[in-house]
Amino acid sequence: MTCKYVMQSPAPSVGAETPIAAALARLQAESIPALAVLDGAGQMLGLFSWRCTSCHLLPRVAQLEDMEAPVQELDFWETGLEDARQRLAGLARQPVSAVMQQDFVALQEDSPVMEALLKLCRGQPALPVLDAGGRLAGMIYPASLLAHLHPPRP
To answer: pTM here?
Structure first.
């Protein structure tokens, strides 16, 4: 079985200049983990997901890889939600291109479904599927793959 069989098509996508707030609203409304980000010519530039935004909501000190103090010991731990809301409000009008994931893996329509399962297992929130011309043909989400692996029973 190939990716073409399990992909969602057309793929949910946004333009690179779409405001982050609009893209987050779409993720919520469609209950999907990621959107393809396209340029004006329809070429794929990246993936936008909640994960792309969430790291920008933490104080910079919490993002440090070599931080010695546990995150729970930092002052923002108790009052952080309001700070995170303010950071999100500050990001809301920025374009998705400012935070999108540019180092994504894409598959071809004729790629085996098991390759998609492997890539999703390694942590990418969704898999863009490209046609023979390199244009976005569809998207594979974990939930859509699960529906083919374990169809709901009546």
So the answer is: 0.81
